[in-house]
Amino acid sequence: MNFTLNSRRMNHLQRPVARSCHRLTANLYLRERPSATATGWLAAVQNRLCSMDPLLALALCLILTSPALVAEEADPAMTTQPIEHSQGSDVASSLVAETPIQPRPVMQQSSPSPWFLKKHPVVNDKAATANSQPIPWSQWQHMTGEWDGTRPRLAQKGVLFELVYTAEVMSRVDGGDPSKGDTSGLGNMDLTLTLDSGKLNWWEGGTFFVYLENMVGDGNEINDAVGGPLAPVSTLDAKDFTQLSAYYYEQSLCNGKCRLKFGKQDANSEFATSNITGEFINGGISPPPNMPVPTFPEPALGLLGEINPVNWLSLRAGVYGAELDGKSKSFEDSGLFSGDVIAVLETDITATSLQRYAGTYRFATWFTTLSTLEIVASTNNDPKEYGDNYGVYMLIDQPVYLEPSATDSSGEGLTMFFEYSWAPESRNQINQYFSTGAMYTGAIPTRDSDEIGFAVTYMSPSDNVRPDDVTRNQANFELFYKANITPWLYVQPDVQWLRNVGGADTNAVVVGARVGITF
User: Fold this and answer.
1) C-alpha torsion sign, points 221, 223, 225, 227
2) Between helices 36-51 and 54-64, what is the axis angle to 10°?
3) CA–CA dist 143, 161 (Å, integer)
């Protein structure tokens, strides 16, 4: 039995007596389903109430309809049934006819909890929704919760911090070099701190960011096991290290139309990247392997500027130190102040006229003043030395199908990408690079945030290294499924087929998985 308290009972004093009579008879009818005899009795009681003194009838109705006596709410279907009144209650009858009777809201029973939510009970009852209902552990944004409201309070004051752990295991299941091992694993811990100068009441538009990173694992062993590909199997391919990977200040200007960023940073977070390419595990997709920008695990000191003159156009330029050794170089020796730099200029165009299907088209060029040796075969003992290096690239993201329920934030549907990069073969081992693929968000019903992706990459080595048996173009095929189990946990199985590994007549198959946890 449901017990519903009528929170609007004080308003009954302003309603006609006839309505109180009607509510009383409806409640009496609901409390016990009447027989034909009981129905006649109820009609007699109603007629008696409606014919007595109005104030006395009203007082009696208030008493009989109080929560202590009425334990159930009236069925809306019951209030739609016409009730006849005696001939002596014309005034009351006219009031009932003129004033339509609205049923009171009925408390709805909550639907059964899904099996997964039952397996994860509430850990901290301080985490609650607006209606004071506890949030299940599986729906938290962080595995450790909001710390009794500490996190939201700090965020409102402009202090944000995140702790993310990423684990990965990759195994060679076919081809490659069996003598180099079959499996490698690694773990990466990221700790970030962000300070918003506006919310801290310092000045508007400023952001301080600090990023501490730790890597533990087998490093490059999986690449050795599959035969030394032209691009790494994983974006987390690195030896063990602990370093301050980023520390920079960013300032927004001109009402958000301009921004400046200065400090140690990952250039790939700004250039040659997108929400699609960043989801793939293969390290040859973002950034292209023939584009030597400072990125994981070797960020660099840099200065970035961006202008957004209109909503469909962004112009972005960055200058970074070209001494790519973020683990050992000091602030002064990063290259930015010693003359060895790499500059990138990118133009982003968004097809806003396509509305929901607006794609983004990026075109860029890069140039470095760092001395580069000529790419030659091992038989050439006298390579040239160039005083610079350069290249161009383009990256296109284009939604091709969006589900009717998709929003800008969810992106449910299919999006494709195409990427091309070129660099002179005299100075780069990979002359031309192509990649294309697609990602579908929410392909499985009830799994709206899960992602499935497929990509193909194609690398053409320089003609200068073909005498060393690097004679074939390497192609990689990758398929992944990223299951976002909770807002703070994802599991991403991955399969890669590497064709002509390292430009030789060797193929390999690698399978693995990546797991991410936000604490």
Assistant:
1) negative
2) 140
3) 14
Residue 165's SS3 state is: strand
Cβ-based neighbours of 405, under 8 Å, separated by 6 or more: 412
Q: What does pTM read for this prediction?
A: 0.71
Query: Across residues 146-169, what is the average pLDDT?
Result: 93
| Helix, strand, coil abundance in the chain, percent, nearest 5 | 20, 35, 40
- DSSP alpha helix (H) spans, 84-240: 90-98, 115-119, 150-156, 221-225
pLDDT confidence of residue 126? 42
The stretch 357-362 carries a mean pLDDT of 94
Phi and psi angles of residue 136, each rounded to the nearest 5 degrees, phi first: -60, 150
> In the numeric block, which tokens belong to residue 256?
């958000």
| Structure confidence by residue, pLDDT tens digits, 446-467 | 899 999 999 999 998 888 776 5
Q: Is 238 helix (H, G, I), strand (E, B) or coil?
A: coil
In this structure, what DSSP letter does residue 504 have?
S
Quick: pLDDT tens for 274-318. 889 999 999 888 889 999 999 998 899 999 999 999 999 999 999
For residue 297, whether the previous peptide bond is cis, meaning omega lies within 30 degrees of 0, is: yes
